[in-house]
């Protein structure tokens, strides 16, 4: 098991570059004495004597050279983020000052913190469990309200406390059963079979609920994929640009310009949408374009909502019939997927023509990607597709794929235990599956962890966290 080493680590806690203020953080046994040795407080007091959770104004020196006037916050072990002595130096935010301060402490025997090392230490000192530590990284990475909420909930304990609790109860039964095995010659039952069955049922229910939430958690974390498909030149790229409010896709009036899928995200009411502009659906001999079309079908498969777009200004009687057939073909090809019919280039349309098209293609939404007309309504409709059932209550949502794996394995093991009990399989075999379940549940909270696993998780953090 990895142990926190005795090094005192240091890192910039604020982003690199210049700002009004920068924060440099130290953690480890020497943190307070090291800073104290080169800091003169305005109050005249020594940092060595001050209590934790106090802030001090003063001058920071490198030898005799004054580096900056700073604020120093002192946290004493174990009452700190990491559980160790922690000192934070808030200096003036010039990159030069930041570097000079870092260098001076490195010269005094600190070492640079590795990515995520502050949070790793918080985990190793029991300040948080593994799933909470992982949530810290998710919280920093979250870019919209929904993923922020999920990370925050997980950081504050989320489902891990419930898992820990059920795991403890399972351990109780595991030890009772182990006891029975010790008395194997005699026919004794220490573990109350009925209570055990109930507990297994309860665990299975929770695991199932968490596993099911992953599909939504994943979608929220990565954005909800929406594919925009349609014949060449109907204005897909223009729509994407209008939604993104930036020139991302290449707009041109040569049919077939969009050769590949282009993806980008926008946030609507706190939910990230990932728009995928797909190559025009068109039979073509152009091989580059056919690859694009192949990818279009793949993207449509992955999307949660399909937007099928037509150029309403180009719809004569024949075009209208073709659009109707194509949209029906889409519905047949991707059953169960919500499809939104969009008629673009409304600005080129007469009101009577619009009415005729509206009657022929029911539920079609008229927009103009060029003028922005109808885009508000489009966004509302997209939200409508996914909001049902999403984020309605405070049920925990699993967004971490490592947890999803562990939960799935744990549930499989629990099912095997349940089957074993039902078929009155010998107790020693059942206990193997119980231990498997305990192992996988412990993986989530970090009660079971390996150096490799920890290294893997924390190396994905940013430095200074
Ligand atoms: N300046 C600063 N801001 C920050 C952090 C930080 O480390 N430094 N944090 C870093 O992510 C977050 C806050 N997290 C923290 C969590 C616990 C403790 C702490 O001192 N805990 C003690 C005392 C608790 C108490 O007084 O009740 C403890 O747990 O024993 C500090 C920061 C966000 N903002
Ligand atoms: N009048 C009008 N023209 C539009 C509108 N939307 C797009 N256009 C024009 O239609 C042409 C084609 O637009 P694109 O966005 O490149 O079409 P696309 O569907 O991405 O085309 P491909 O790349 O071939 O798949 C461009 O000249 C756009 O300026 C609109 O709402 N009204």
From TrEMBL:
Organism, scientific name: Robiginitalea marina
What name does UniProt use for this protein? Answer: tRNA modification GTPase MnmE
Q: Which positions are annotated as binding GTP? A: 233-238, 252-258, 277-280
| Gene behind this protein | mnmE
Write out the annotated subcellular location: Cytoplasm
Q: Which PANTHER family match?
A: TRNA MODIFICATION GTPASE GTPBP3 (PTHR42714), TRNA MODIFICATION GTPASE GTPBP3, MITOCHONDRIAL (PTHR42714:SF2)
What are the names of the required cofactors?
K(+)
What does the UniProt keyword field contain? Cytoplasm, GTP-binding, Hydrolase, Magnesium, Metal-binding, Nucleotide-binding, Potassium, tRNA processing
Q: Which residues bind Mg(2+)?
A: 237, 258
Keyword Electron transport appears in the UniProt entry: no
Give the domain of life: Bacteria
The entry marks the following residues as binding K(+), namely 233, 252, 254, 257
Domain TrmE-type G, first and last residues per copy:
223-387
The record's top EC class is hydrolase
Q: How is the cofactor bound?
A: Binds 1 potassium ion per subunit.
Report the Gene3D superfamilies cross-referenced here: P-loop containing nucleotide triphosphate hydrolases, Probable tRNA modification gtpase trme, domain 1, tRNA modification GTPase MnmE domain 2
Q: What does this protein do?
A: Exhibits a very high intrinsic GTPase hydrolysis rate. Involved in the addition of a carboxymethylaminomethyl (cmnm) group at the wobble position (U34) of certain tRNAs, forming tRNA-cmnm(5)s(2)U34.
Give the E.C. number(s): 3.6.-.-
GO molecular function annotations of the record: hydrolase activity
């Amino acid at each position: 098991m990895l142990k926190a080493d005795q090094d005192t680590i240091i890192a910039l806690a604020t982003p690199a570059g210049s700002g009004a203020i920068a924060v440099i953080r130290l953690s480890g046994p020497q943190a307070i004495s090291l800073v104290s040795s080169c800091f003169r407080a305005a109050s005249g007091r020594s940092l060595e004597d001050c209590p934790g959770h106090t802030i001090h104004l003063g001058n920071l020196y490198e030898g005799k050279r004054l580096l900056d006037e700073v604020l120093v916050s002192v946290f004493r072990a174990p009452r700190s983020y990491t559980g160790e002595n922690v000192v934070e130096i808030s200096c003036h935010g010039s990159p030069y000052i930041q570097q000079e301060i870092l260098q001076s402490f490195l010269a005094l025997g600190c070492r640079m913190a590795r990515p995520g090392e502050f949070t790793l230490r918080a985990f190793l000192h029991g300040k948080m469990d593994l799933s909470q530590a992982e949530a810290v990284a998710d919280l920093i990475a979250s870019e919209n309200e929904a993923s922020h909420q999920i990370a925050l909930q997980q950081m504050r304990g989320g489902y891990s406390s419930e898992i820990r609790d059920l795991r403890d109860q399972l351990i109780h039964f595991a030890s009772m059963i182990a006891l029975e095995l010790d008395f194997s010659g005699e026919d004794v039952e220490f573990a109350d079979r009925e209570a055990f069955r109930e507990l297994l049922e309860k665990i299975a229910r929770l695991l199932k609920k968490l596993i099911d939430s992953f599909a939504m958690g994943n979608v929220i974390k990565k954005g909800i994929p929406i594919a925009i498909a349609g014949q060449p030149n109907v204005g897909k790229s223009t729509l994407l640009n209008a939604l993104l409010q930036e020139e991302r896709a290449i707009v041109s009036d040569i049919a077939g310009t969009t050769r590949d899928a282009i993806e980008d995200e926008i946030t609507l009411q706190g939910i990230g949408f990932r728009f995928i502009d797909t190559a025009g659906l068109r039979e073509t001999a152009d091989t580059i374009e056919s690859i694009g079309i192949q990818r279009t079908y793949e993207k449509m498969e992955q999307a949660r909502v399909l937007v099928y777009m037509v150029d309403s200004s180009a719809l004569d009687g024949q075009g209208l019939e073709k659009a109707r057939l194509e949209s029906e073909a889409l519905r047949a090809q991707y059953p169960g997927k919500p499809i939104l019919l969009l008629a673009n280039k409304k600005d080129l349309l007469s009101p009577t023509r619009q009415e005729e098209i509206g009657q022929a293609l029911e539920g079609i939404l008229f927009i103009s990607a060029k003028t922005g007309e109808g885009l508000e309504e489009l966004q509302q409709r997209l939200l409508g597709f996914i909001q049902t059932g999403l984020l309605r209550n405070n049920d925990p949502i699993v967004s971490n794929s490592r947890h999803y794996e562990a939960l799935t394995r744990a549930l499989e093991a629990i099912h095997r235990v349940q089957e074993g009990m039902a078929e009155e399989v010998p107790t020693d075999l059942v206990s193997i599956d119980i231990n498997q379940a305990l192992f996988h549940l412990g993986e989530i909270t970090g009660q079971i962890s390996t150096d490799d696993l920890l290294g893997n998780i924390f190396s994905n953090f940013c430095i200074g966290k």
